[in-house]
Amino acid sequence: MSVARVTEISATSPESFEAAIKVGIDRANKTLRNVKGCWIKDQNVMIENGKAKEFKVNMQITFELDD
């Protein structure tokens, strides 16, 4: 039997939502062990001078706790 925890993080990218998700997952894996999944809670686009400047995702990362 395993026990998991969920933590919420935000990540950004000037390229796309997919790139922001990758940034967030890559960063989570540097700090957290046993990352098992993520849920995209929210997506936002920051606009500057009428153009998309940055894509932001708020995500919940699920990771299993060590025994």
Automatic annotation (TrEMBL):
UniProt cross-references to InterPro entries, sorted A to Z? Dodecin, Dodecin-like, Dodecin-like_sf
Q: Which domain of life is it from?
A: Bacteria
| Record-given protein name | Dodecin domain-containing protein
To which species is this protein native? Answer: Marinicauda pacifica
